[in-house]
Amino acid sequence: xxxxxxxxxxxxxxxxxxxxxxxxxxxxxxxxxxxxxSSAPLPVSIIAEVDLYKFDPWELPAKATFGEQEWYxxxxxxxxxxxxxxxxxxxxxxYWKVTGTDKPVLTSGGTQKVGVKKALVFYxxxxxxxxxxxxxxHEYRLADNKINNKPPGCDLGNKKNSLRLxxxxxxxxxxxxxxxxxxxxxxxxxxxxxxxxxxxSISIGSHHDAKFQFSTKGTSAHCLKxxxxxx
Length: 231
What we know:
The protein is mostly beta strands.
């Protein structure tokens, strides 16, 4: 269902041989998103305009103008609630969940903030019991909200109850190639959950006949105190 083979669009731009599109975060914001928001000409018509949340992530490569391992899109966002600014991130068969904190996009000299980068992961199903997938989104938005970046035909002044947010975002979509890690459920890990999933413990005796239990998680060993003996 999530195969990306042969999903690239047939509408490829007319680009020179050997062209690769690997822009930096700053280039995406300054040369593409900012120009799109102000209706200025883009350097090249290589980023498709798609309503991302109407599709599942594995459907998006076929909607892209260009790309093989990662795909770029301009998208608008709808409000989750009529009177709020929180975006609705529900898709066809799942939802995008924010992970980590927003990161500023700075100019090459690091002196000016031009945008904000947000990372999201796609979960299949419905919250809070969604299943984590390997599909990742990087969402870029402008740091300066003074630019009039309404989508064409979107007159929020006459539509007070409109669910459409008034900003363009630029999104990078890719699938993380980590097939060894099992998919996770969308729930916070607790101590009970972690202890309930570790392998059978190993008891080890010491000089003082103290007993310890060890379990491995990743590359580190966690020592659990028994019989009031400090680790």
